[in-house]
Amino acid sequence: MRSRIDTTRKALGSLLLTILTFVLWGCTGDKPKEMLETAEFEERQMNLPHAKQLYEDLVRLYPTTREADIARSRLSALNRD
Question: How far apart are CA 17 and CA 63, in angstroms?
Fold first, then answer.
């Protein structure tokens, strides 16, 4: 039962972080950097499906940025594992 509660808390935390991230994206000007930082945070938290989705979105939305290059590299590494 405890692990189920922990899993639920982790999922809710990730959801709240995602919502907060999208709200803040509208307030600042460096969206690629923010997306990369959020994806890296999700990766460190071992929320790999969400991290991959954020990396993919970053590459799709901002393909010519330095952050997209980093995201491509991280996606390649995550897909190898």
Answer: 24
The token pair that represents 65 in the structure block: 């940025």
Query: Number of structural domains, the chain?
Result: 1
State how far the Cα of 10 lies from the Cα of 16, in Å rounded to an integer: 10
Q: Identify the domain containing residue 10 by its residue range.
A: 2-80
Residue 47 in tokens? 């929320």
pLDDT at 25 > cutoff 90: no
Whether this prediction's pTM lies above 0.85 is answered by no
The candidate with the shortest Cα–Cα distance to 39, out of 7, 72, 64, 12, is: 72
Buried b (16+ CB within 10 A) or exposed e, 56-81: eebbeebeebebbebbeebbeeeeee
Q: Which stretch of DSSP H or E encloses residue 22?
A: helix 2-25
